[in-house]
Amino acid sequence: MVVKVPRFAFEKFPAADPTLTTTMKSVGEAMALGRNFTEALQKAMRSLEQKGSSFSFTAVERTEEELAELIEKTKVPTTERIYQVQQALLAGATVEQLFEATKIDPWFLDQLVLLNEVAQLVREHRDHLDPEILQLAKRHGFSDAQIAEIIGSSEDVVRGVRHALGIRPVFKTVDTCAAEFEAFTPYHYSSYDAEDEVADHETPSIMILGSGPNRIGQGIEFDYSCVHASLVLRSLGYETVMVNCNPETVSTDYDVSTRLYFEPLTLEDVLEIVESERRTGGLLGVFVQLGGQTPLKLAKALKDAGVPILGTTPEAIDLAEDRGEFARVLEEGGLISPKNGTAYTFEGAKRVADEIGYPVLVRPSYVLGGRGMEIVYDEANLARYLENATEVSPSQPALIDKFLEDAIEIDVDALFDGTELYLGGVMEHIEEAGIHSGDSSCTLPPITLGPDVIAKVKEATEAIARGTGVRGLINIQFAYVSENLFVIEANPRASRTVPFVSKATGVQLAKAAVMIGLGKSIAELKAEGHLPNSMDGASLPQNTAIAVKAAVLPFSRFRTPEGVVVDSLLSPEMRSTGEVMGLDTHYDTAFAKAQAGAGSPLPTEGKVFVSVANHDKRNVIIYAKMLEQLGFEIVSTGGTADVLRRNGVNSTVASKFAEANGQHSIVDMVRNGEIDLILNTPAGGAARSDGYEIRAAAVSVGCPVMTTISEFAAAVQAITALREHSWG
């Protein structure tokens, strides 16, 4: 039995309507296999890796009115509907009532009833959980964590009891040759059944933990590294084992690795796969640094369970991820980071912000993909953020950093073997600091950084890699401002930019990282031709092509309940669902190609709307003048139009949406297709509201919209090049 479930990211678009319609809104999916529907369903749900993605069987007392209200909610298809249905059945609703409300086939509803009944059976035997009941629960896909919740125990205790009773899963095989002849590429899934079907292997295997379902912040960029790792290991004669649950990826193609386990990436499931490999021929170790945060967060627990971790150790991972430990690494390396602090209350946050000075970047301590990050400019907005955006507590403090305005953000991917550094690539972000690296366009090689700055970046990268003890890949983000290089963060793993850097430079970083994890030195890799001898990312040849990475943003998919597109304003929180690469001999045409590839081709004629915040007005003048000289008509609202006119740029004044009073406003012009390119940088109050309406209208009609001066400057350069040259 196979079950596929979608993964959604409405937390990234809080204004979006979560109602499911004929427009696709999921950003990824997970797949699971089992011997029955309930087993496969439960495995698939926990594969989503979202808080609350597994069913909860804790009984909640509900009045008749509350139950009726819950049943009423199930009438609307949302991401929460399956949980609402299960909870309604748990509270006493009938299959008939839920069928009437949802029109979900009664067979599926009955399967949810079955899960609730098994949970009740476990609850009734919580004081003495006998083997038969435990085996039954596992046959229906209950995780150790779910059983622990039902009986009021811990996951570790349940797992210990289960192992002591000899209740372990077997692994069944999907025959990729349909039994017509011997299959050399079968793949496996766990079940609490009778017969194990994993064949013995003569040599110990190497396991690679994949990245799980695609989500904003962790997608197929990480799958790239996992696949390349498996390919290079097989070429070196090793048997490889891939663990993943994402049917969309290349890593779950059954012929990429020697064996594929289509399983959730949880500690419980991975430990059982480890046991299977040890039982059938041995396990050399596990790579956890290639699939993003999903496998990385399992590293310490796996090592504590006696599983060998290849490459960067859990201790080195902790050094990079623990703020206090990482600060010591920076101090020892003579490096600086933005002033920062940690707060557990609003009073503490206010004290930190006052000390380091506004603006500040505030975020929860458990972020992935910039989740919950915001730039805060004053105390009132700090209070609003802490009240609405995150829960601050002793276990979940708020992290507060000085925000470096007008800084150039730099991304680095590098390899380190304990002795020597290989700098894979230095990427210069086109947008200034404050836009999440996953949403910001970037260029490789950098176009405005001098050799002295790149030398500083390389020196700092080596100090961090040496200080943390990385063995393999490391990604570091820097901010360069006022001749100072600040360290933003370091990730001791493959990053989402590894595929981009590898393709832009022709050097397979993921393959080299795996060989370093097996003990090879960078000097040996250079001698064997896996890494170039005469250059690295700090010293690329003069004739190196310029590569520009641009984000693919899904704003048109997400609308408010009123049908309006959500705001496309970029921020420290990542929202892109993919990326493209533009490649050319010059930066301007490479940027134009990247924009076209991302679905926002730049115009070469027409009208350009320019409306910027006060602090951007001085910088926008030269670019507006360049567009006017190219023959574009400039359209602006009052304040920006006045500044442009005083500086010799003719600008047609358009009414603001908030002040139109029934007249033809700039929003109407955008909706009618009269505008071909938009620059709108955010401001406060009514201007921010007006900006939202403009950006929403632009997304709805497919008009390119830019929200930073730096990106607009790149666009003007690209348009100039497009007018002079063409490709295709």
Question: What would you note in describing this structure?
Answer:
By secondary structure, this protein is of the alpha/beta class. It contains 26 helices and 24 strands. The strands form five sheets. It has a seven-stranded antiparallel sheet with strand order 17-16-13-14-15-18-19. Helix 23 (638-646) links the parallel strand 21 (633-636) and strand 22 (651-653). Helix 13 (314-321) crosses helix 14. The two termini are 48 Å apart. The relative contact order is 0.07.
- Gross morphology is globular
Tell me the number of strands. Answer: 24
Largest sheet: 7 strands, antiparallel
Query: Strand order within the widest sheet?
Result: 17-16-13-14-15-18-19
- Over all CA atoms, what is the radius of gyration? 27 Å
Considering DSSP H and I runs of 4 or more, what fraction of the residues is helical? 25-40%
Average pLDDT, rounded to a whole number, is 90
* Low-pLDDT windows of residues: 366-370, 684-689
| DSSP helical segment count | 26
User: Termini separation (Å)?
Assistant: 48 Å
User: How would you classify the helix and strand content by structural class?
Assistant: alpha/beta
In what range is the share of β-strand residues?
Answer: 15-25%
